[in-house]
Amino acid sequence: MNTISSILARKGTDTISVPPQTTVLDALRIMAEKNIGSVLVMENGKYLGLVSERDYSRKVILKGKHSDDTTVAEIMSSDLPSVTPKDSLEHCMSLMTKNNIRYVPVFENEKLAGLISMSDVVKETILNQKETINHLESYIHGQG
Q1: pTM for the whole thing?
Q2: What is the CATH number of the domain that holds 69?
């Protein structure tokens, strides 16, 4: 069974975070600079939530707010489900689908261990399928 730890091993555990008083505009600049779709909101090493491009479009633009005077604390998603490194890819994908979300924080022993995106889950699933195909081809050709 493939687990979240396999994604973290491949992509690493580094995350990009901002404090809650960061303006949405500054958070968007960071996302653009790093070519990412979300940033974690952290204070004193504690996870508070996550701000994504989706949060921006739905909670700033559509509500007539301004990016330069709205803080990430005002629009962050703080009630996201989470996973652990031992959870399966299937469990993570199910959580994401059920909750219609694209990012899930990973916690180990109540400490933030990383962030998983839907893209990470899809990429890992494809890698696993390629590995299975290679094993089956080896078996069929008598090399396994």
Answers
A1: 0.85
A2: 3.10.580.10
